[in-house]
Amino acid sequence: MPIAAVLVVLGALALAPQSLSSSAPKPPKVGLADQLGASFADSRLTALPVRHARLSVPWDAMRYRWQRQEIEYWMQTTSAAQMAPVVTFGRSRTRPFSLPPPLEYRSQVRRFMRRFRTVREYSPWNEPNLAINPVNSNPRRIATYYRTLRALCPSCRVMGADVVDNSSLGRWMSAYLRAFAPGSAPRLWGLHNYVDVNSSSDWGTRTMLRLAPGEIWFTETGAIVDRDKPSKTVKGDRRLLIRTGLRRARAATKRVFALARLSPRIRRVYIYHWQASKRSSWDSGLVSEEGTLRPSFDVFARQARLAAGPAEPPPEPPAETPPA
Predict the structure, then answer these.
(1) In the prediction, which pLDDT does 16 show?
(2) d(C-alpha 297, C-alpha 294), whole Å
């Protein structure tokens, strides 16, 4: 072989590993989903390069001073921790569960946007496919909420919904996507894949990857240490696959990030939540009731450091004009 040809081959071999490494998918950004503002003031959390936080907000929260104060404190602590908020609207804390009329939803969401202008990422409804009453999981109503958010804040990033990986996931997502004209479906989605994380299944995550176009965030996920059993189940209910316990928590938290590696379309992971509480029937905390770090925290911290890259640009400044 001529010397020139040999040099070309050697040069190509030298560049190959660099090309492969540069095309490797980046690990997803790591965030924390937690309802308590005080969680984001804990120095053990703020010492980590965690720059994303999620809050679930009742759709009618702006009607109540005590809820507005809770949200304001949450926004203050996450801002001090340099975390960008994503807000998901959901069921009222003061009324029987029902989906609000579209005009009421629009009015209350607009009040929220005007008060909390730094929020630039939203989801229209939390876990709609978990509702027992079909009226409260109506895909067309949730699609109306999605369009409302897009109209009120055209420059915001808006998820299609935050869905949970229960047995209804495939049916609900297929019905929801039919509410959109071809090519107009949302390109950003939230998934709560607790069943996959706390079992040996990956059906929920793979179903979402198959059905949902565009980017997916695990907006609420984590290792379940303890929870109340579902009050109503049927044969084949995926929630029955869930296995809980402190001994399983570290491996389950690792599984969160293994599932995230199924696709480069999975861009963020929000672990729920920070600290366990005796007053709650749900425990997936990274910190025990006594304030001790659990082994799952080590996994969370390591993944946050792995995902930390160049600083993301700050959120866009709020528009001069209020939402429509």
Answers:
(1) 37
(2) 5
Structure tokens at 246: 């402190």
Residue 201 has, within 13 A of its CA and on its CB side, a CA count of 21
Q: What is the largest CA-CA distance in the chain?
A: 82
In a domain, 8, yes or no: no
**1 domain residue, yes or no:** no
pLDDT per residue as tens digits for the range 117-163: 999 999 999 999 998 888 899 999 999 999 999 999 999 999 999 99
pTM over 0.70: yes
**Domains identified in the chain, total number:** 1
Structural domain containing residue 237: 26-307
CB of 268 within 8 A of CB of 218?
yes
CATH number where 100 lies: 3.20.20.80
In this prediction, residues 185-209 reach a mean pLDDT of 98
Residue 231 lies in a domain: yes
Residue 290 domain flag: yes
pLDDT tens, residue by residue, 265-320: 999 999 999 999 988 899 999 999 999 999 999 999 999 999 996 555 545 555 54
Tracing tokens 């402190």 back to the chain, one arrives at: 246
pLDDT digits (tens, 9 = 90+) for 236-265: 789 889 999 999 999 999 999 999 999 999
The reply to whether omega before 52 is within 30° of 0 (cis) is no
